[in-house]
Design a protein that fits this description.
DUF1759; two-stranded antiparallel sheet; mainly alpha; DUF1758 domain-containing protein; about 230 residues; about 60% helix; 11 helices
Length: about 230
């Protein structure tokens, strides 16, 4: 669910030449927030544009906030607990941040999601064909942690073993072989180096798939049989 938000911005005369657009930009659609803490960062990165706009009155910001939460969700219940007034707008924002945007809560959520990936790998195992999806998933979680100040430089010693435990066995073995050939042992143990290795593995896998697919669309077996029957 999304809500369209059109912001009225005060016009200012700027005596500079600007290039005229020959197209219209699409209207920004804000994703509605349901009250899931793991979605708060994405929600707030969009809504704070409204929050920080001094040209919009607080009572109007309150209405935009109401339009930006999912109906009948935890987030809507929280916002509706405040009468829709200018004075209550900052209070509603503070409560949303306290309930769903606490840094310690978000860090715990993303670390637990990494642990879930580890457990999934331990129970079910992973195949090499999962690598591209796994890489994207790991990158997303690590970026979220980095946006909360848990950078790879500071927390790499903690995060690297978790990421390694998520990997398919053959990829992990390839990673260990690569590390053993590195002259800089300290650098080879960094999380950044591991993620670079995984990215290159994904790119290599995609190139192999491209080479296998050839230059044309493969002929399906049914189509081949139809062609033979016509000849007969």
């Amino acid at each position: 669910m999304c809500t369209r938000v059109d912001l009225k911005v005060r016009e200012t005369v700027v005596p500079t030449k600007t290039e005229k657009r020959s197209f219209k930009l699409p209207k920004i659609e804000l994703k509605k927030f349901r009250g899931e803490a793991k979605d708060f960062l994405a929600f707030w990165s969009q809504f704070q544009k409204i929050h920080n706009d001094k040209s919009i009155a607080k009572e109007d910001k309150m209405q935009y906030l109401l339009q930006s939460v999912e109906p009948k969700s935890k987030a809507e219940r929280l916002v509706l607990s405040f009468p829709a007034t200018a004075e209550n707008y900052p209070k509603a924002i503070d409560q949303l941040k306290e309930r769903f945007g606490r840094e310690d809560l978000l860090v715990e959520i993303y670390v637990r999601e990494l642990l879930n990936l580890v457990m999934k790998n331990a129970v079910c195992g992973r195949t090499k064909t999962d690598l591209s999806a796994l890489y994207d998933e790991l990158e997303g979680k690590l970026r979220s942690l980095e946006s909360l100040g848990r950078t790879q430089e500071k927390y790499g010693d903690f995060l690297t073993p978790l990421v390694e435990s998520c990997l398919p066995e053959e990829i992990l073995m390839a990673w260990e072989r690569k590390r053993s050939t590195e002259t800089d042992a300290k650098r080879s143990q960094t999380l950044e180096h591991l993620m670079t290795f995984l990215r290159l593995e994904v790119q290599g896998e995609e190139m192999v798939q491209l080479a296998k697919s050839g230059f044309g669309t493969p002929i399906r077996k049914k189509d081949q049989l139809k062609g033979l029957s016509r000849l007969n």
